Automatic annotation (TrEMBL):
<dbReference type="InterPro" id="IPR049349">
    <property type="entry name" value="DUF2264_N"/>
</dbReference>
<dbReference type="InterPro" id="IPR016624">
    <property type="entry name" value="UCP014753"/>
</dbReference>
<protein>
    <submittedName>
        <fullName>DUF2264 domain-containing protein</fullName>
    </submittedName>
</protein>
<dbReference type="Pfam" id="PF10022">
    <property type="entry name" value="DUF2264"/>
</dbReference>
<feature type="domain" description="DUF2264">
    <location>
        <begin position="23"/>
        <end position="372"/>
    </location>
</feature>
Length: 623
């Protein structure tokens, strides 16, 4: 078998992995298969992969580096604990390192001083070099080693924004320090302080927010803020203070995973929320990291079930196209979900999901029998307090839903809502309507919106979380109405108090208008999840999204949006509308997402005027 020949996939092992059938050999096979599929798209010196598809806003050269660096991350994890390299990944990528860092080469990479994209990719290269050190770095010639150091050292003095990017700087400098290269220890320490300031509580970081607001949350909380922090320690072993820092980061990771590990459906799908979702199974990188650093709240078999379930979910739903390339998308190719900075090589950051390969075959995460996740066994509802989320997973349909009372991807000033962040609900089986509130002229998914006399729909660009605990969450926001161009900004509307109570697949959502304005709203609209009328390949076809009014005066209906998401097109959104809403009255709606319309709860007025919910099983909750 030649080095370029794709090996045959191993058979499923239902004795060791009764739920997924996948073992470490399956992950090794996937790594090899994905790396070999890239080779036909390589430049002659292997420094770039010029993949098909539209380039990012940074251009094809930066995109080619991105594909190299992110796939090299898979190489690093693949070779870290390996006793052989049958496909010569080490030799192939060593040639690419030599060509890419050679100033005289036609394939030379952009410098870190000139290219912000290069600063991002340098971090992946640094981690991969560390993990594959005995295979690649130790066998590079002194000249190539010097070239690599000079290229990485371009980060000295380069600009890194106040965000997760500071981890890209720090892991780059951890590698430079480990090989005696020039590094900025004072700046590393400064960035460590800033990143610590972004820590909220219970394991959660809010990216770019050192002010204690939990608004900036998505899967980056695990991809970078958690995993890169511990990899910085792994690359800095023996340095002063690192053991103590690693202990702190490990405790944070353990707390984070106790929540984040519940954000996967029974089919393996991660929660569809936030940007850059085309990294797909990078979502399990932090889970593997928990096993690497003995910082997992789960048993080894339970952790493997979630990690392999997520990876398998994408592999079996078309993430790799006919050429074996990872596409931009979720299931199959869906370029519309890519951010402007995403090149055809961007999805290869999914290589973070290969982190588990640094653990040898003898590790319990590979040796122990796979164990079910809680969603395989029972219904669960819980709160993630620092970020204002309620999380509900239901065994009957395998769906996880998140009710959002805290994440708004905010700045200090209100900006137009972003569908991946500002909606009231997200799930593992649906995606938000890709239109900001107010632009559609009708209900989009998971909103609480006022309609003013000019027909404008309000937005909630800034959220103030009051409480999230058990099965209840409460927040408030100022309803804001976008001004027409060329005038920028918002007109301020009333303040709204919003409360969610969750049981199983049903959310009861209650709204109270707290303060009057000069012109009261014409209507209040509360909407549910968007389900595609035409599901795409790989998406579920059995979903029912429903809404019903639990207080008088509510009119129900459905909007259909002729737009497309990663799950399909013709998006149907159920809603309830209350005309001429009054101040201080509670408007209560029940919403569900599942395989059928549930038996709805009822609502009565309590002694203090606050609604009391009676659930079908007799349980009571007070709004």
């Amino acid at each position: 078998m030649s080095a370029d020949t794709v090996p045959q996939a191993p058979g499923k092992d239902r004795a060791l992995s009764p739920l997924t059938g996948w073992t470490r050999q399956h992950l090794v096979h996937l790594a090899d298969r994905s790396l070999l599929a890239l080779r036909p798209w390589s430049t002659p010196g292997h420094a770039r992969f010029d993949l098909p598809g539209p380039p990012s806003e940074r251009g094809p050269i930066a995109g080619g580096l991105e594909a190299f660096a992110r796939s090299f991350l898979t190489v690093g994890f693949r070779l870290s604990a390996a006793d052989s390299d049958p496909h010569n990944h080490a030799g192939w990528y060593a040639e690419g390192l030599a060509a890419g860092t050679d100033p005289a080469s036609s394939e030379r990479w952009p410098t870190l001083a000139d290219s912000d994209q290069a600063r991002v990719e340098a971090a992946s290269i640094a981690i991969a070099l560390h993990e594959s050190r005995r295979w690649i770095w130790d066998n590079l010639s002194p000249r190539v080693q010097e070239q690599v150091v000079v290229w990485l050292a371009g980060s000295n003095g380069a600009w890194y924004p106040h965000s997760n990017w500071q981890w890209f700087h720090n892991v780059t400098h951890a590698f430079l320090r480990s090989v005696g290269g020039p590094h900025e220890q004072a700046r590393v320490d400064e960035f460590l302080g800033y990143l610590d300031d972004c820590y909220l509580a219970d394991g959660w970081y809010s990216d770019n927010r050192p002010d204690g607001r939990g608004g900036n949350i998505d899967w980056y909380a695990g991809w970078v803020m958690q995993q890169f922090s511990l990899w910085y320690c792994r690359m800095s072993a023996g340095e002063p203070g690192i053991a103590e820092r690693q202990a702190v980061y490990a405790e944070r990771l353990k707390a984070y995973l106790a929540d984040a590990g519940e954000l996967f459906g029974a089919d393996g799908a991660p929660l569809y929320q936030g940007r850059s979702l085309s990294y797909r199974y990078a979502a399990v990188g932090a889970l593997w990291t928990g096993a690497v650093f003995d910082a997992s709240p789960y048993s080894a078999g339970r952790l493997r079930r979630t990690c392999m379930g997520a990876i398998k979910y994408f592999v079996e739903r078309g993430a790799f196209d006919g050429d074996g390339l990872l596409s931009r998308g979720w299931h199959g190719r869906f370029d519309a979900m890519a951010e402007s900075y995403a090149s055809p090589g961007s999805p290869y950051w999914a290589g973070l999901g290969m982190t588990g390969l640094v653990l040898p075959e003898s590790h319990p995460v590979w040796r122990d029998v796979e164990q079910p996740a809680p969603i395989d066994l029972e219904d669960r509802v819980g709160a993630i307090r620092p970020i204002g989320w309620l999380v509900s997973g239901t065994r009957s349909d395998g769906i996880v839903r998140v009710i959002n009372h805290g994440v708004d991807y905010s700045t200090l000033e209100p900006v137009t809502e972003r569908p991946p962040y500002n909606r009231f609900g997200y799930s593992t089986a649906t995606a938000p309507v890709p239109l900001p509130d107010g632009s559609a002229g009708e209900a989009v998914d998971n909103q609480i919106a006022l309609i003013d006399k000019r027909g404008r729909w309000s937005q909630r660009p800034l959220i103030d979380t009051f409480n999230a605990d058990g099965n209840r969450a409460e927040s408030s926001h100022q309803a804001r109405f976008a001004r027409a161009e060329p005038t920028e900004g918002f007109d301020t509307g009333p303040a709204l108090t919003c409360i969610s109570v969750m049981r199983g697949s049903v959310e009861v959502r209650a709204v109270q208008i707290e303060s009057p304005t000069d012109a009261m709203a014409e209507a209040l609209v509360i909407s549910g999840y968007a389900v595609p009328g035409k599901p795409s390949p790989g998406a579920r076809t059995d979903l029912v999204s429903a809404a019903v009014s639990l207080t008088a005066g509510g009119m129900t209906g459905r909007s259909v949006h002729a737009v497309e998401t990663a799950f399909g097109s013709d998006l149907e959104v159920p809603w309830c509308r209350f005309d001429a809403p009054n101040i201080d009255r509670w408007y209560v709606v029940a919403l569900s997402l599942g395989e059928h319309i549930p038996v709805w709860p009822t609502v009565d007025s309590g002694p203090n005027g606050r609604p009391i919910i009676t659930w079908p099983g007799g349980e009571l909750d007070c709004i």
